[in-house]
DNA sequence: ATCCAGATTGTATTTATTACAAACAAGGTT
DNA sequence: AACCTTGTTTGTAATAAATACAATCTGGAT
C-alpha cells in the first residue's frame, strides 16, 4: 500500500497531526469506494487499530469534512455516508438495493455549468451542482 | 382552507382511510413548503390534534411515502425531511443556513432528459434525475 | 347498528450521534 | 534526546431520531 505518503501529505497540508487513526481512516475511505457509514468504517479500521473508539471515527470524519478532505453523502434511505473523493462527481443510486456508486461526467458538468451561467436563479447563487441519478444497476457489484 | 376535499381525494385514491391525523399531516405538509422534519410536523400538527402521538407522524409519513403521496428529502447536514410536492423538481440548498427550497425548471429537465437518452451509463438504468443546487440565498426567507 | 381491517397510541427499544473530561501522543523547541 | 504544549483519542454517559409492538380505537363497508 504505497498511498500512505500521499495521505500524510494531505493531512499535513490540512494542518492536521499525523496519527495512526487518521491515516487508517483515510486509507480505508480511499480503498472502500462504497461510501461507507461511520459504523462500517469503525468495523474496518478496527481491524488495523484494535483499541479504536467509535468516537474517534466520528471526530476524525468531522475533522476531515471541516478541512474538505472528505464529503458527506446522504441518501433518502439511511444514515450518513462518507466519501474520500473530493473531485467533482455525481452519484448513481438504487433505492431498492441501497447501492451507491460514483459517476464522473465532465461533459455533463460542462453542459450544466454553461446552463447555469446563462440561466440565473432569482435570489440564489449556485456554487455547486450535484446530481443524484436514481435507477437500477443491471449487474452485480464488482 | 379549502384544500381538504383535494386531500381526501388523494387519500382515497391511494386506498387509505380518511383520518383526522392523516388529513392534518398532509394539510400541514402542503402548507409548510419548507420540507419539515418529522419533529416539526409533530409540533405543528399537534396544535390541531392535541393527543397526537409522534409515532403517528412516523407511521403516517411512511405510509404516504409508500403510496407515493410524499417524498423523502435528505440533506448532508441533518435528519430526514418530507415534501408533499411529488411533481418532478429539484432543490436549492444552502449548507450554512440549512435552508432548502424547491426549484422547478422544465427547460433543464428537458435538457437532462435528452442528454441521458443520448448518453447511456454503462450498467445503470436511469429512472429519475435529481439535482441539488448548493449555494447561498441572497435574501431572507419570505 | 355492527363489525373488522386498518389506524392510532404509548411504552419500550434500538440505533446514530454528540458531549465531555481524563489520558495520551505528535511534533516543535530547547 | 527529553520536554512541553496543544491537539487527539478514549470511554462513558447523554441525547436524539426512528422503530417495534401490543393494546385500543375507529373509518367505512355491510
Walk me through the structure.
Chains A, B: Pfam families: FUR (PF01475). The structure is a homodimer of 142-residue chains. The first copy, chain A, is an alpha+beta fold and 142 residues long. Chain A folds into 2 domains: 4-83, Arc Repressor Mutant, subunit A (Orthogonal Bundle), CATH 1.10.10.10; 90-134, Dna Ligase, domain 1 (2-Layer Sandwich). In chain A, 42% of the residues lie in helices and 21% in strands. Chain A is built from 5 helices and 5 strands, in the order H-H-H-H-E-E-E-E-H-E. Chain A has a 3-stranded mixed sheet with strand order 4-3-5. Chain A has a two-stranded antiparallel ribbon with strand order 1-2. In chain A, strand 3 and strand 4 (99-103) form a beta hairpin. Chain A is globular, with a radius of gyration of 17 Å. Strand 5 of chain A pairs antiparallel with strand 5 (124-137) of chain B, so a sheet runs across the interface. The first copy, chain A, binds a DNA duplex (30 and 30 nucleotides) through helix 4.
Main sheet: strand order of chain A: 4-3-5
Cα-to-Cα separation, first versus last residue of chain A: 21 Å
Sheet-strand content of chain A, in percent, reads 15-25%
Q: Domains counted in the coordinates of chain A: how many?
A: 2
InterPro entries (chains A, B): FUR, Fur_C, WH-like_DNA-bd_sf, WH_DNA-bd_sf
GO molecular function (chains A, B): DNA-binding transcription factor activity; transcription cis-regulatory region binding; zinc ion binding
Family (chains A, B): Belongs to the Fur family.
Pfam families (chains A, B): FUR
Amino acid at each position: 500500500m504505497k498511498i500512505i505518503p500521499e495521505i500524510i501529505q494531505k493531512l499535513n497540508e490540512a494542518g492536521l497531526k499525523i496519527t495512526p487513526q487518521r491515516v487508517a481512516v483515510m486509507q480505508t475511505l480511499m480503498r472502500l469506494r462504497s461510501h461507507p457509514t461511520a459504523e462500517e468504517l469503525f468495523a474496518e479500521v478496527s481491524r488495523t487499530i484494535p483499541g479504536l473508539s467509535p468516537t474517534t471515527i466520528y471526530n476524525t470524519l468531522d475533522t476531515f469534512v471541516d478541512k474538505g478532505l472528505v464529503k458527506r453523502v446522504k441518501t433518502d434511505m439511511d444514515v450518513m455516508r462518507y466519501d474520500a473523493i473530493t473531485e467533482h462527481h455525481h452519484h448513481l443510486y438504487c433505492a431498492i438495493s441501497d447501492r451507491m456508486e460514483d459517476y464522473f461526467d465532465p461533459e455533463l458538468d460542462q453542459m450544466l455549468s454553461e446552463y447555469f451561467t446563462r440561466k440565473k436563479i432569482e435570489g440564489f447563487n449556485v456554487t455547486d451542482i450535484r446530481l443524484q441519478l436514481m435507477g437500477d444497476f443491471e449487474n452485480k457489484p464488482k
